[in-house]
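Researcher: We're teaching a course module on how sequence relates to structure. For the next exercise, students receive a sequence and then see the predicted structure as tokens, so they can try to spot secondary structure elements on their own. Here is the exercise chain.
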Amino acid sequence: VRDTDGPDRLYVGVPTAGRSPKFALQALVSSLLQSASYLKDKRSGDPRHVDPYWTCVAYFNSLRELGGAHVLMQDDVPRQM
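Model: And here is the predicted structure for the students to work with:
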């Protein structure tokens, strides 16, 4: 049975062929946050659709992965943006 009344969800898979998963995560998060910055600056479309908290949700399988991503988010993501 398909739920046609609730909110939609979009799942996206990102291949990491030839790159490490950390590099792919860094590139993806940088791109998402840069796009949010662009929308905020240009005010294109309806500004209510831009998340004022710049929320980017990521799920990890272990605390070790989370710890590595935390360092990545602090160092590499701002530099990439």
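Model: If you want an answer key for the exercise: Residues 21-80 form one domain. The two ends are 42 Å apart (CA to CA).
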